[in-house]
């Protein structure tokens, strides 16, 4: 690590601590040349493998940008989008893989987006899952409704139809 003050090519680690719930390490360093101290933060890199096979670094901004389009006109704030992107990144990092398929990112977005705003979820899912007909929308809406009624019907048993 080069010293940011004198550009000396070496430094000594004085102290190390985990931060961001163990997702990164903060290191306090000292330059042997100028004796000044500075802090570095180390995180694991996460790469996205695109459909074309190309790889690029993971970006929360791309998550926010893609989801923002689905949320246009909805009561979703920029803070909500930032929290969603953070949840998606945490989910992807918890997989333990350094390379994530772009398709997996879309799947990781769907759950938190459904919890955030169901209309935005349908918009995103319709593009992401390439809905081609009204039946595709109806099936997705049926799944959303089933999620709502599962909570309501847990306490009641179905009665047989009257003869």
UniProtKB/TrEMBL annotation:
<keyword id="KW-0547">Nucleotide-binding</keyword>
<keyword id="KW-0804">Transcription</keyword>
<keyword id="KW-0479">Metal-binding</keyword>
<dbReference type="Pfam" id="PF22811">
    <property type="entry name" value="Zn_ribbon_NrdR"/>
</dbReference>
<keyword id="KW-0067">ATP-binding</keyword>
<dbReference type="InterPro" id="IPR055173">
    <property type="entry name" value="NrdR-like_N"/>
</dbReference>
<protein>
    <recommendedName>
        <fullName>Transcriptional repressor NrdR</fullName>
    </recommendedName>
</protein>
<dbReference type="GO" id="GO:0045892">
    <property type="term" value="P:negative regulation of DNA-templated transcription"/>
</dbReference>
<feature type="zinc finger region">
    <location>
        <begin position="3"/>
        <end position="34"/>
    </location>
</feature>
<dbReference type="GO" id="GO:0008270">
    <property type="term" value="F:zinc ion binding"/>
</dbReference>
<feature type="domain" description="ATP-cone">
    <location>
        <begin position="46"/>
        <end position="136"/>
    </location>
</feature>
<comment type="function">
    <text>Negatively regulates transcription of bacterial ribonucleotide reductase nrd genes and operons by binding to NrdR-boxes.</text>
</comment>
<keyword id="KW-0238">DNA-binding</keyword>
<keyword id="KW-0863">Zinc-finger</keyword>
<feature type="region of interest" description="Disordered">
    <location>
        <begin position="1"/>
        <end position="24"/>
    </location>
</feature>
<keyword id="KW-0862">Zinc</keyword>
<dbReference type="InterPro" id="IPR005144">
    <property type="entry name" value="ATP-cone_dom"/>
</dbReference>
<dbReference type="InterPro" id="IPR003796">
    <property type="entry name" value="RNR_NrdR-like"/>
</dbReference>
<feature type="compositionally biased region" description="Basic and acidic residues">
    <location>
        <begin position="7"/>
        <end position="24"/>
    </location>
</feature>
<keyword id="KW-0805">Transcription regulation</keyword>
<dbReference type="GO" id="GO:0003677">
    <property type="term" value="F:DNA binding"/>
</dbReference>
<comment type="similarity">
    <text>Belongs to the NrdR family.</text>
</comment>
<dbReference type="Pfam" id="PF03477">
    <property type="entry name" value="ATP-cone"/>
</dbReference>
<dbReference type="GO" id="GO:0005524">
    <property type="term" value="F:ATP binding"/>
</dbReference>
<keyword id="KW-0678">Repressor</keyword>
